[in-house]
Amino acid sequence: MDNVSSHKHFILDGFSELGALRPVLFIPFSIMFIVSLSANSLLLYIIISQRSLHSPMYILIAGMACVDLSLPLFFVPNMLLNFLFDWRGISLIGCLVQMHFIHFVGTFQSTLLVWMALDRYFAICTPLYYHERMALQRFLRFMIPPVIRNIFIITAFVSLAGPLSFCASNVINHCFCEHMALVELACGSTTINNLVGLLAVFLIPVADFIFIAASYVVIFRSVLKSGRSGFKALDTCITHIVVISISLTVALTAFLSYRIRVGLPAASRVFFSTMYLLFPSCFNPIIYGVRTTEIRKHILKTLTCCHFIHTVSHS
């Protein structure tokens, strides 16, 4: 009976509280989407085109740019169409596919920060063995376990959401298929889903940030022991720490907004959850472009060259 009455089609109804003002959201979110695409594309182009940037640290930054470039593509275009043309419908299969890609790609925002922390640890604490330890064959032992973890955990909680019976409402109070937003519509018990969801939070972003924090504690101790000469090497870490701090703040705010519901409007939860995915995609390439000297130099050189070509062609 559950299977017969279970909804297979859903309505994405995020920010419905805004009423007639809802289409206005198209403007800020489309601006953020364009910033994310252009900034990450430029960052990737600079790193790929400049042979001097083909070192492990810059390759990892390029990896982060790939994640930040691809993540918004899985939900922002559909969200913008939702705002502008009121296209709110999505099938259960489409919802689960979107959920899987969003959460799976999203996990690599923290996983890449782990690899970046390892890169800085090897560069600062064991500089003589840096190239040996960052060689692909050696570094794969640090890359493969987190990738397997991410695949297994995300596949597990998305698979558990699929068989749930949605016999009451089919209105998802979100702009995309977020795990908790879908699960809370289920009629039966969702205890396992909630536990697996919490387990995913603690085993991926929380575990990653604990590892990152421990790595930077060791790095700072090593720099303080080495004296004045070590402080120059610390500069590259500051950029990562800024990115980590912003990512952690946005992630915690999004997580707590779904757990602490008293007095918090539904639109606020949707906003924080959306910003958790979209804001780092806009912010990360800008902070890496501004803070990383070599990347900044090449960006300015490329932009100056483009401006010169444009001026010459119109003279």
From TrEMBL:
Membrane topology: Multi-pass membrane protein
The keyword Nucleotide-binding is annotated on this UniProt entry: no
Localisation per UniProt entry: Cell membrane
Domain G-protein coupled receptors family 1 profile: 39-288
Any one of the GO CC terms: plasma membrane
InterPro entries reported in the protein's UniProt record: GPCR_Rhodpsn, GPCR_Rhodpsn_7TM, Olfact_rcpt, OR51/52/56-like
Ranges that cross the membrane: 25-46, 58-80, 100-118, 139-161, 198-224, 236-258, 270-290
Record keywords, A-Z: Cell membrane, Disulfide bond, G-protein coupled receptor, Glycoprotein, Membrane, Olfaction, Receptor, Sensory transduction, Transducer, Transmembrane, Transmembrane helix
Principal location listed in the UniProt entry: membrane
UniProt-recorded name of the protein: Olfactory receptor 52K1-like
Species assigned in the record: Seriola lalandi dorsalis
